[in-house]
Specification:
93 residues, mainly beta, five-stranded mixed beta barrel, 4% helix, elongated
């Protein structure tokens, strides 16, 4: 799983089979300092995330398994909305 921030929405009237009625959001993977890392991607959202929220995303076959059609072309899915997280900072000796 990856940490990400929702940065946009996708509207698509025409979609492949298995993607009907699926909301798509643009997410930006982040590091533990909430800094952008890597490229943005489109992710399926069935849990109601919104722009500006921090989320957990999964990719590949775990994301695809979340759809009714197990052969759908889904590659990323939002699996949680993050309320907060904390990181214990390591100090150098």
């Amino acid at each position: 799983m990856l940490l990400a921030k929702v940065v946009g929405s996708v509207w698509a009237i025409q979609k492949e089979k298995g993607m009907e009625n699926i909301k798509l959001l643009i997410v930006q993977p982040i590091n533990t300092r909430k800094e952008a890392v890597g490229n943005t991607l489109a992710a399926m959202d069935r849990i109601g995330a919104g722009i500006g929220e921090f989320v957990l995303i999964t990719q590949g076959s775990p994301a695809q398994k979340l759809t009714a059609d197990k052969n759908s072309p889904i590659d990323a899915a939002i699996v949680g909305i993050i309320d907060s997280f904390e990181i214990e900072l390591q100090t150098a000796n």
